[in-house]
Every structure is written in C-alpha cells, then in structure tokens.
Amino acid sequence: MSPEYVIFGNFSTKYDVFSFGVLLLEIISGKRNNVDYQNHPALNLIGFAWELWRQDKALEIIDSSLEELGFSNEALRCIQVGLLCVQECAADRPAMSEVVFMLGNNTSLPSPKQPAFILRRSSSNLGKLMNRLGEPFSAREVSITVIEAR
C-alpha cells in the first residue's frame, strides 16, 4: 500500500503506481516484499533494493533465472523503474503511462529518490510506539488498546 493511503487514508491514481513498483521489484528479484533480507532483517524488498541501488550493486537482487537468460540490462531498468514507482512522495512517482513508456523504450531515466517504507517495524517497536503515543492503534488487523480506570 502506498504511504499516503496508509498514513492519511488518501487514495489517488499514484496508489496503483506504488503497487506496480512493488510488483515489478518482486518479479525481478523472485522474492516477496514481506520477508527478511540476508543480513538485514529490518529491511523489506523495497529497502533492500534501494540499498543495493545506492551501492551500485543492484545486479545482486536479480533472480538467477533472469541472469542466466542474459536479461541483466533489462532487469536493471525494471529495478530503476520499480524504485521510481515506490517514491515516498506521490508527486515524485511517474504516471502509469510514463511507466509503460519507460519500460518500452530505451530513453534515459531519472534517478530514484529514497523510497517509502524501506524499514520494517518489529513488534517490540510497535509496543514502544504505542507507549510513546498513548493512543490505541492497529497493526496488521490486531488492535492494541490501552485500558485506563476512571
């Protein structure tokens, strides 16, 4: 889900762009967004892809079957487009028509900025957040409520 929907409940056309970016990264890597990554258990797929991109090691995330077929350049382009689609600010994300154009042509692409949701929260962090805010909140369909006597 896009950050503007999760945080503010705002739904826009950029919601689908964000989801498409996650899907693109999942296809290229052969991994799901919600699993731990190697020595970085706090990173999700978006964060892991971003860290590799920043270190000029994006080839490391590509699924081995794509590498064997010789699609490394196309996969790198897809990673870049995927990262552009998951930008934190909805205004920074391309429109779907631009995404289709970027994937279908060899034009130069803009550099992605840091994406949204690059870190996963642990359950202990959720508890700390609840204590800090002092308000009930929900995480993954589980409600946590602070009960106080009158």
From TrEMBL:
Start and end residues of each Serine-threonine/tyrosine-protein kinase catalytic domain: 1-62
InterPro entries xref list: Kinase-like_dom_sf, S-locus_recpt_kinase_C, Ser-Thr/Tyr_kinase_cat_dom
The entry's keywords: ATP-binding, Kinase, Nucleotide-binding, Serine/threonine-protein kinase, Transferase
Gene3D superfamilies hit by this protein: Transferase(Phosphotransferase) domain 1
Domain spans labelled S-locus receptor kinase C-terminal: 105-150
Coiled-coil region(s): none
MF term (GO), any: ATP binding
Pfam families on file: DUF3403 (PF11883), PK_Tyr_Ser-Thr (PF07714)
Domain of life: Eukaryota
GO cellular component: plasma membrane
UniProt cross-references to PANTHER family, sorted A to Z: NON-SPECIFIC SERINE_THREONINE PROTEIN KINASE, RECEPTOR-LIKE SERINE/THREONINE-PROTEIN KINASE SD1-8
Name of the protein in question: Serine-threonine/tyrosine-protein kinase, catalytic domain
The species this protein was found in: Dillenia turbinata
